[in-house]
Amino acid sequence: MEALVCKKLGDPTALKSSISEADNDSPIILSKTQPIPQLTTPTSVRVRVKATSLNYANYLQILGKYQEKPPLPFIPGSDYSGIVDAVGPGVSLLKVGDRVCSFATLGSFAEFLVAEQDELFKVPDGCDLVAAGALPVAFGTSHVALVHRAQLTSGQVLLVLGAAGGVGLSAVQIGKVCGAVVIAVARGDEKVQFLKSLGVDHVVDSSKESVISSVKDFLKARKLKGVDVLYDPCWRQTY
């Protein structure tokens, strides 16, 4: 199968050369001879990958700066979506041909990937596999943070910084589903208008106005006591 393989640590963006196997300068190569992974347990599932997204963590792994350092060589990649290609004899939740998405520690930058059935999510009809391939890490991060850790409930006030990024957008949408009053912070008219189109209760353009003053004015106008949950995927000291 074809796969993108990291053969040595380094910055792939610093090189202008290709990622063909003949190129020994790039830390990543496009290999066409990787073995197709086999089912490892009775409940494992093999997925033919149709879409995968690039996360910053993948880039850090190739640089060798991520907290988890897999041995070389390795196949990077985390978010993915695809079609179930094979199932183990103990699989009861999925069947061959099902559309699924998930995330892995490694391995999604390849044609095939093996996962346990309980690690996979069915992709609903009408949801594009490309969109589904970018969903698990961002939405999974925000779901754990807001639903499990913060235990966000209806009527609470959620303030999202960096709300126009991938993780920020997922937090905004999860907040609305939870019934929270959502305040979003972003920079620029285009991002502000997009957030408003998602039904955000109040959007602050941090390039034009004070975040603190704008949030206080909104809370006062709505007779709200304050912010219950602050979600900051950026970790910035600007505010």
Automatic annotation (TrEMBL):
CDD domains: QOR1. InterPro entries: ADH-like_C, ADH-like_N, ER, GroES-like_sf, NAD(P)-bd_dom_sf, Quin_OxRdtase/zeta-crystal_CS, Zn-ADH-like_protein. Residues 22-233 form the Enoyl reductase (ER) domain. SUPFAM superfamilies: GroES-like, NAD(P)-binding Rossmann-fold domains. It holds the Pfam family ADH_zinc_N. GO terms for molecular function: oxidoreductase activity; zinc ion binding. PANTHER family: QUINONE OXIDOREDUCTASE-LIKE PROTEIN 2 (PTHR43677:SF4), SHORT-CHAIN DEHYDROGENASE/REDUCTASE (PTHR43677). This is SHORT-CHAIN DEHYDROGENASE/REDUCTASE. It comes from Salix koriyanagi. The lineage of its organism: Eukaryota, Viridiplantae, Streptophyta, Embryophyta, Tracheophyta.
